[in-house]
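ok so i was messing around last nite and threw this chain in just to see what happens. nothing serious, just curious
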Amino acid sequence: MARLLVALLLILPRLALAGCAPIAMGEPRVWLAATADPSLRITFLGHASFLLETPGGVRAVTDYSGVFGTADPPDLVTMNHAHDSHYTLSPDPRIRHVLHGWQEGPKPPAYDVRVGDLRVTNLPTNIRNWGGGTEVNGNSIFIFESAGLCVAHLGHLHHLLEPADLDALGRIDILMIMVDGGYSLGQRDALAVVEQIHPRIVLPMHYFTRDRLASFVDMMRDAYAIQVQDRPSVVLSRAALPERPTVIALPGPH
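result:
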């Protein structure tokens, strides 16, 4: 009993930080039914940066480095620490909310930010450092909730997820994952992470070349429907989520 209590105390703080709909341990992972049809627009800007635009007009950019951005500053940006192409210490000063995904003090980063109809939370993860060691809490999985959808951007994730991570994330509808096969996860491990999370839609990023993207897409064909788009934007809603899990490959600078 004492061990169980300690385990719960370790997990509950993580549940409070991340996820649109955290689930209790042992409960089946299910997708909630849609009750309305607001839509979320997602545009691949390049590398690991996506622009999310909510029904209420809130705009957020992931892994913002100042290279892949928008003409007008977004309301919120998230950053990760692995490489300088994923963050900047000199963001546009007009951006109201700048969320660093790495630990900068004695405690891990812990966000629960609401801007209009957008909620952003995070789940810290460790990453490899340049010396081959481990940087504790050097990355965050950022979770965006709007339009009844839960979107997870894995950032520079370097490892498979633990059960406590999955419990903290809860239901994920749309997953943004690096598929370069080397700088973050190997492609087989990236596939394993997708299978751990069970999203309805997978958006590959950080693929550098079309061949790398094609390699990942080919691995997914047995279990996922495949959509290769010639436009960098997709508009999604809960009511229109595909019945079969789907990979949507969006074009953009890599």
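not much to say yet. DSSP finds four helices and 14 strands in the chain.
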